[in-house]
């Protein structure tokens, strides 16, 4: 990565007003040009040439780029076949023979292989090497699989001779250093490390067939039972309660469709395992430059009063202390509220980082967010052997407490804003005093030429960014802020990968970036990945997790299921992006080998020779163009066999984009867009446009800090995105408050894949709203975003057909945008038990034996499906039950409001404000759990609870009055009502708060039992005298 701009300079400006205020300039070092040789797709080394000067080709069937060392290793220790087409490798002249080689030309090259007759060597080299015809197998990917070598049948002497010959060739190639006579052990170690470095960086761990196959069988059985159940329900109406029957059937059909949308994307769940040691052996070899690719980290924040600066500071500190090369990490903090409080807090954070970062690196601390490290209730002396650790830890904890005091002082000062506005330390007014009308601001706190740590070592870069805001411009909330970070980072550092974090999500695993690099830098699938998504884990949640804040079912079941299809959805944080995918480019397409043909049919026969293939391809392309999917520009299609990029970092001039086409051949120049199309797509910034053409990142040569700062201010100006494709095809997509779902959906529609990475130690942790009201508002925002997507042109029901989105992946996206509408059916279904109990009617007529079997089979299949799902996923039954409960709680409250708000916003233009979820600071443990905040979202579930409780009392009293015969039909209605009450129990517990510390279940049962016993008491009437003898009645005759 090229060097960043100067550290310690605060720059503000407005491109539209031609204003720029900056300090002294320092010129960053230039980026060295990279090699232009072809790279091996397995080990990353140069392929090299044969003795005759031609490029070495391992496989003549598909030409997959593999160096000679990997080719020989694959033949001797691997599966002896090409990684792309799976065709068995043919033996090249001069290469060792392995078991299974064909016997052709054996007499000609046997002596040359074992060097027995040097006189025939020149003659043998001039002979034509014949490759036997082989039937190619179906192309498949072998990434992530362990290669099992076949057993050799050579004796010891032949094997030793083959190994010595291999070492000699490696020494000539410079891969193995020739050691002294006593260095055989070192040579063996080097050979082992080289072989280990060529192994896959990750592997796919499928779910055991004994766990997943019964699960799939039960799903199919449940689907069949569901069909027979609907057959019975539709053909057997309840004539005495016809309206209730119609409502119940409609709701049940909707629930069945929702279950299908949710269930079948979980058909192929998988786990993944990474190998960080192999990543280090391949890209972090001792004595060589570190070849890990740079990463830009984005942290977004809006309101420092709702998102405490101490939480943001901990997130930033965990990023600066990450286990990754410091020169390859840059942290960008987006302040969309232009707050001077955050600006000063980051200055204090940068100063504290000079002591915190070396402390973490010296003792390998986990986690590297000080607030959470010092609050961990564990034995912090475990595995610590350095005698200075206790002293250093005590001193660091004292410094952190002093740091917190300084941050708290800034927060206290910011509570009351002066009438004249905030003033900076140099006496100038704070440019962001008006949060809706201020220039763009950039401040570089740390960097290669900025402050070093206390040990004199370099620190990662820390950059403060606040985009320009002016009245009359649409700023698109968080999505617009993220797009501004994409552009400013491309101008200043241009790392090929970007990590997106919320301000309250700190790095819990210091090797998180390396975990992502195991996928993104994999030579097999790295170029095809748009992002690597990590699961969200949370701190500060009570043990019972009554409101399902952990969302374990989604992250450990649904996401693993999607990972086996086309990849998980983007969830807004904890995600490492491929920058090229955010630019709206298509992924590189795999080189497909031509299909085999025969001469037994005429050429016009499409069955054998594929004569209609071109025609159908043209039709497909035309269909894409009609749907608007072919306008994504074909720059990434240059990755195919006709286009090869010569250099990952060509030198580009800043004045004209056309000069940036140096380093491309003529065919590429003819395929690239003109400057006008570039500007229409990306905006009027030649520096940014140049950066989009550099796939491996870096800055153009010859740049200077002044031009970079001007361009950085320019690309965050409020009018930069006008008449461009930002938010439409590029970057974070606009049109929904849940921009994450929409952005990931667009990438998957283009054919990109994503990966779900879930290491044993969670990579990221955040804070969740444990208060009931805040939790419901958070769910309301998510559901509102889904409704907005449903009512937009990007709805998965009709968008992207003809693209590369897989069917099961589409079903998953459809489920993410239609689930709020389930609330209408859910609230109607939860009202039915109370109505049935109050009216004495029921939605199901009298059951016969066959109907009873279908009902029992349906309930049994639901239970078995849940049990088997928990069995293969490892999710606890408590987490599963909490998820079921909150599905009902959220469905009858937040989801219902989201549907009406979404309809009002789209149809009537009534916009709703985006509410930032408050982040927990250092309050008492679980203190907010019992905090009661009234909101209108609480009205529907409260009404349902009261209705069902009244219905239970009324039903029992009616049964008491009517005698023994009425208890039979009552049990079905009571079961229905108790199903609703049990699911809403956590809501009732949160509604009651902490009053008198009385358990909610005691209060609930007290009310029910008191009502029932009161009715029974009235029915018995023990104080009325009992009459004995005949009952006298008035005869009506006047005596």
Automatic annotation (TrEMBL):
Pathway: Glycan metabolism; plant cellulose biosynthesis. Mn(2+) binds at residues 478, 502. Gene3D superfamilies: Spore Coat Polysaccharide Biosynthesis Protein SpsA, Chain A, Zinc/RING finger domain, C3HC4 (zinc finger). Its cofactor is Zn(2+); Mn(2+). One of its GO terms (molecular function) is zinc ion binding. It catalyses: [(1->4)-beta-D-glucosyl](n) + UDP-alpha-D-glucose = [(1->4)-beta-D-glucosyl](n+1) + UDP + H(+). UDP-alpha-D-glucose binds at residues 300, 306-307, 336, 477. This is Cellulose synthase.
């Amino acid at each position: 990565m090229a060097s960043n701009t100067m550290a310690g300079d605060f720059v503000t400006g407005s491109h539209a007003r031609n204003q720029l205020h900056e300090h002294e300039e320092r010129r960053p070092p230039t980026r060295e040009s990279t090699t232009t040789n072809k790279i091996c797709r397995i080990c990353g080394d140069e392929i090299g040439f044969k003795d005759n000067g031609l490029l070495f080709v391992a496989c003549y069937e598909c030409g997959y780029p593999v160096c000679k060392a990997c080719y020989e290793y694959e033949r001797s220790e691997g599966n002896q076949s090409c990684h792309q087409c799976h065709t068995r490798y043919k033996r090249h002249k001069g290469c060792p023979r392995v078991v299974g080689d064909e016997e052709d030309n054996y007499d000609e090259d046997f002596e040359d292989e074992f060097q027995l007759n040097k006189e025939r060597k020149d003659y043998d080299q001039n002979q034509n090497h014949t490759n036997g015809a082989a039937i190619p197998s179906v192309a498949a990917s072998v990434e992530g699989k362990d290669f099992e070598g076949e057993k050799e049948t050579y004796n010891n002497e032949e094997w030793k001779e083959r190994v010595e010959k291999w070492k000699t060739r490696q020494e000539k190639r410079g891969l193995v250093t020739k050691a002294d006579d006593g260095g055989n052990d070192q040579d063996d170690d080097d050979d082992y490390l080289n072989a280990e470095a060529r192994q896959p960086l990750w592997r796919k761990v499928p779910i055991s067939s004994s766990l997943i196959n019964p699960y799939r069988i039960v799903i199919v059985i449940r689907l069949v039972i569901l069909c027979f159940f609907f057959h019975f329900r539709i053909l057997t109406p309840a004539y005495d309660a016809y309206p209730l029957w119609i409502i119940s059937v409609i709701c049940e059909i909707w629930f069945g469709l929702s279950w299908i949308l949710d269930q079948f994307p979980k058909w192929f769940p998988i786990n993944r395992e990474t190998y960080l040691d192999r990543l280090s052996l391949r890209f972090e070899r001792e004595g060589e430059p570190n070849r890990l690719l740079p990463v830009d980290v984005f942290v977004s924040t809006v309101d420092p009063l709702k998102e405490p600066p101490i939480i943001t500071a901990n997130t930033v500190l965990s990023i600066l202390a990450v286990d990754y090369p410091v020169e390859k990490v840059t942290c960008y903090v987006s302040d969309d509220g232009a707050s001077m409080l955050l600006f000063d807090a980051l200055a204090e954070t940068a100063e504290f980082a000079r002591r915190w970062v070396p402390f973490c690196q010296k003792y390998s601390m986990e986690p590297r967010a000080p607030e959470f490290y010092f609050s961990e209730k564990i034995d912090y002396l475990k595995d610590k052997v350095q005698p200075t650790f206790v002293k250093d830890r005590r001193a660091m904890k004292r410094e952190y407490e002093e740091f917190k005091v300084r941050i708290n002082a800034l927060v206290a000062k910011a509570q009351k804003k002066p009438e004249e506005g905030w003033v900076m330390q140099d006496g100038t007014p704070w440019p962001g005093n008006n949060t809706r009308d201020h220039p763009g601001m950039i401040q570089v706190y740390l960097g290669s030429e900025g402050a070093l740590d206390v040990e004199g070592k370099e620190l990662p870069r820390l950059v403060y960014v606040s985009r320009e805001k002016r009245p009359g411009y649409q700023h698109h909330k968080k999505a617009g802020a993220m797009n501004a970070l994409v552009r400013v980072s491309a101008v200043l550092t241009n790392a090929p990968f970007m990590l997106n974090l919320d301000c309250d999500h700190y790095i819990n695993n210091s090797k998180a970036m390396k975990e992502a690099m195991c996928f993104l830098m994999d030579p097999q699938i790295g170029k095809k990945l748009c992002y690597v998504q990590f699961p969200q884990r949370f701190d500060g949640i009570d043990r019972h997790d009554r409101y399902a804040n952990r969302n374990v079912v989604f992250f450990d079941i649904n996401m693993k299921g999607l990972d086996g299809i086309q990849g998980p959805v983007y969830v807004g944080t904890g995600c490492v992006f491929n920058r090229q995918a955010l630019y709206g480019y298509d992924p590189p397409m795999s080189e497909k080998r031509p299909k085999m043909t025969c001469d037994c049919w005429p050429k016009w026969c499409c069955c054998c020779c594929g004569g209609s293939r071109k025609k159908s391809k043209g039709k497909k392309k035309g269909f894409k163009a009609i749907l608007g999917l072919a306008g994504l520009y074909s720059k990434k299609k240059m990755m195919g066999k006709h286009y090869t990029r010569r250099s990952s970092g060509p030198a580009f001039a800043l004045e004209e984009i056309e000069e940036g086409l140096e380093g491309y051949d003529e065919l590429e120049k003819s395929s690239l867009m003109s400057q006008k199309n570039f500007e229409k797509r990306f905006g009027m910034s030649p520096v940014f446009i140049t950066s989009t053409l550099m796939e491996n990142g870096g800055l153009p040569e010859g740049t200077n800090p002044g031009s970079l700062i001007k361009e950085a201010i320019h690309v965050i100006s409020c009018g930069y995105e006008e008449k461009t494709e930002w938010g439409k095809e590029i970057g974070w997509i606009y049109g929904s408050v849940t921009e994450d779902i929409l952005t990931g959906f667009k990438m998957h529609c283009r054919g990109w894949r994503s990966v779900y990475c879930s290491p044993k130690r969670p990579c990221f942790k955040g804070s969740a709203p444990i208060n009931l009201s805040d939790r419901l508002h958070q769910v309301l925002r998510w559901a509102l975003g889904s409704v907005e997507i449903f009512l937009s042109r990007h709805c998965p029901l009709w968008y992207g057909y003809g693209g590369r989105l897989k069917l099961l992946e589409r079903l998953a996206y459809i489920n993410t945008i239609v689930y709020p509408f389930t609330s209408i059916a859910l609230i109607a279904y939860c009202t039915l038990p109370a109505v049935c109990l109050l009216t004495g009617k029921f939605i199901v007529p009298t059951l016969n034996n066959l109907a009873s079997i279908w009902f029992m089979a349906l309930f049994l299949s639901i239970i078995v499906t849940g049990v088997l799902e928990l069995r293969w996923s490892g999710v606890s039954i408590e987490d599963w039950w909490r998820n079921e409960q909150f599905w009902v709680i959220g469905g009858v409250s937040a989801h219902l409001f989201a549907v009406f708000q979404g309809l009002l916003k789209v149809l009537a233009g009534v916009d709703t404000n985006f509410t930032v979820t408050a982040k927990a600071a250092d309050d008492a443990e679980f203190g907010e759990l019992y905090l009661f905040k009234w909101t209108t979202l609480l009205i529907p579930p409260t009404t349902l609870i009261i209705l069902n409780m009244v219905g239970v009392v009324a039903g029992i009293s009616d049964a008491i009055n009517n005698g023994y015969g009425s208890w039979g039909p009552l049990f079905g209605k009571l079961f229905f009502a108790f199903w609703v009450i049990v699911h809403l129990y956590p809501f009732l517990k949160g509604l009651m708060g902490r009053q008198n510390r009385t358990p909610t279940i005691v209060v609930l049962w007290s009310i029910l039992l008191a009502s029932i016993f009161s009715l029974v008491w009235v029915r018995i009437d023990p104080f009325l005298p009992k009459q004995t003898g005949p009952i006298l009645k008035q005869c009506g005759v006047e005596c």
